[in-house]
Amino acid sequence: MRKNIIVTTAAVVAASALILNGCGSKKAEPVTTAAETTAAETTTAEETTVVETTAAAEESTPAAEESTPAAEETTAAAEEESSEEETTTAAEETTAEETTKEETTEAETTTAAAEETAAQKAGEAPSDIYSKVTGLLPGMITVDANYIANYYGIDASQLDGYVFAMAEDVTKADTVAILKAKDASAVAALAGQLSAVQQQKAQELQDYMPEQYQIVAASSVKTAGDYVYLVMSSNAAAIEQTIASSIG
């Protein structure tokens, strides 16, 4: 029994040896693992991505090159618009300055005209006017406010200035009265009072000095603005002309 076991064991060993030799005679075939397949696929994908990226970049380059002139044109247009705006602003500033100068000149002209008008309206003081005509008169005396109030009823408080002068020689008719009213509403009353002066003088000279009476008869009361004046003189025309030009 023990012998049979030994034989059988030897047969099994021999068979195993034959099987092992048979397997060793064949060439080993390479086995591709899942990791190697994944690596290859990854490499292929990366290469594909690089190719696609390169192609996209090459396609984008002409577009970028085309965009550059457009951008330059836009920049040039913007600079041109900016230049135009600066030119417009400068022109507007210049126009504004010229307008301001013109307005200033017009204002100055208007002011000067207003001052001239006011001066003309104001006129000269009666005393200043009278000083211009003294050379055309004989020796004269001027009377005060009390005198003209008592003899002729003229209220000096209603006047903005006056001169009432008469010849020192009572035989002469020469009289010059220049009154400037404070209020234009008083002009008519003052004219009536000077007319009374002229009539009184005419009565005094009519019967005694016909020649001097003619001087008085030829005279008349005149008004201009706030002024009322009476000139009795052989040089009345020249004196009245001076008064009128001084009143304005």
Give me some keywords for this one.
five-stranded antiparallel β-sheet; 7 helices; disordered N terminus; single chain; 12% strand; 248 residues; rod-shaped; alpha+beta
Could you describe the 3D structure shown?
- With 248 residues, this protein is α+β, with helices and mostly antiparallel strands.
- It has a domain at 126-247.
- The protein contains 7 helices and 5 strands; from the N terminus they run αααβαββααββα.
- The chain has helices spanning 2-24, 34-122, 126-131, 145-152, 187-206, 210-217, 236-247, and strands spanning 140-142, 159-167, 175-181, 221-224, 227-232.
- It has a 5-stranded antiparallel sheet, sandwiched between helices.
- A hairpin with a 7-residue loop joins strand 2 and strand 3.
- Helix 5 packs antiparallel against helix 6.
- It is rod-shaped.
- The relative contact order is 0.07.
- Residues 1-8, 17-57, 60-65 and 116-120 have low confidence and may be disordered.
